[in-house]
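Any chance you could type out some protein's one-letter sequence along with its backbone structure tokens so I can compare the two?
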Amino acid sequence: MITGSLVALITPMAKDGKLDSVKLDELIEFHLKEGTHGIVAVGTTGESATLDYEEHANVIRQVVVTVAGRVPVIAGTGANSTHEAIDLTQRAKDAGADACLLVTPYYNKPTQEGLFQHFKAVAEAVDIPQILYNVPGRTACDMDNATTLRLSSIANIVGIKDATGDLARGKDLIEQVPAEFAVYSGDDPTAIDLILLGGKGNISVTANVAPAKTAKAAELALQGKAAEAKAVDASLLGLHKNLFLESNPIPVKWACEQLGLCDSGIRLPLTYFAESFHAPVIEAMKQAEVID
């Protein structure tokens, strides 16, 4: 089972929006040095929506090669077409990913039965561990706990990233799913609390900027050391909040640029981070002690 702080990795781009493979390698080495427990490539934070199929597969392949087995690599392969999700998931398997992360189909608003059949079809088509991803705030599609529970009986569906931020709902799910099925947080502000309730880790945006502290907080929470975990997490609260002052990943890419981890490139329709929000993010970075 994959556990701990799993960074929802940004995809470095040059000023003109072209993928920056040099910075991607450097970014991976930075995370491994800082203690990140796993890397999620080409998820929402990795701008999956604006990468074409070949770019998507190439980024996954590069992350797998550079990581070289040192931590697990989870590839974002979700789509709002079942056929496309199967294709992307097969490409990730072929690239050597350890697992895939599949978001609920966005925009077309499937029924709960449609969600079940979608994820079942992908799981049956591609033999790789698969993690569901429920983020209704972005997809306009909310997968019920009951549907997740049905899917948890499929052998290679091994977990879910719950980005609802609803701890009561997360607790209810943790108590019902099989012991080998992992519930991960996808909401930095509530992640430590969810881990303390039995969650297995955090697929984190904040980890892009403060990987060492995010990893330490997750480690402590997994050990049941609530007070210590929350003390570490307290210094990250500003990042948890201010990295969402504009749509993710706009603020986090800007913060990473300030750390020298990437250039300023970001693809339309996402735009460069508004100057009026720079000060709160800088203050949060100081609070987290990633800059002076």
